[in-house]
């Protein structure tokens, strides 16, 4: 499964997490920003990382989820996944380790996952949710072509409390050109289009990641 679902970009390799990744995941998830903006347990123990890897493998097998550990030449730099996969839709989630941020890795990995989701997986919609105010995550989603759809009051639970959530979406018919978001200051630099591959014609039903791994 690790090899068959692997995605490669210019600088990164994305592959389903395995036991060898547990220590690096545990270390990266000590970062306050990951704990602040994601729903991981806090404090985050090595057992939490081991349980995360086991859960990812199981949910990938059932088709509920597809998660990739992101590696550069030095080692693990982040995690990205498609969650709650059902009815042709999924939710994207990601974190990059503190030392790897600001180098375009999030956007590079995100672009590969969006290509995979709207390409071989044939999903029709990808959703993004974040705690309101998470500008780094919002900017990354914006750069991938997601369009802001609104704020859900107390829409997310992180660290034991409910907080307002921003929601954005990308549908397979979108051209993936970045657009301005009302909750973000207008960009001074032109928004780059990250779409890499032409969108396939939608001729058949969505496929699970597991079936793609088996059939190619
Ligand atoms: C969100 C996160 C994954 C971004 O990863 P990254 O590798 O640093 O992102 P990139 O370098 O690829 O940048 C992608 C875009 O976001 C912008 N961006 C990244 N960090 C930013 C920040 N702190 N503030 C404003 N914009 C930011 C970049 O300028 C870039 O936009 P552009 O291409 O239009 O110029 C990373 O900050 C992170 O892990 N945060 C903590 C966990 C988290 O919030 N996860 C998401 C939960 S919803």
UniProtKB/TrEMBL annotation:
Signal peptide: none annotated. Residues 201-210 have a biased composition (Low complexity). It holds the Pfam family Acetyltransf_3. Residues 25-168 form the N-acetyltransferase domain. It comes from the Bacteria. Residues 194-216 are annotated as: Disordered. PANTHER family: ACETYLTRANSFERASE, RIBOSOMAL-PROTEIN-SERINE ACETYLTRANSFERASE. This is GNAT family N-acetyltransferase.
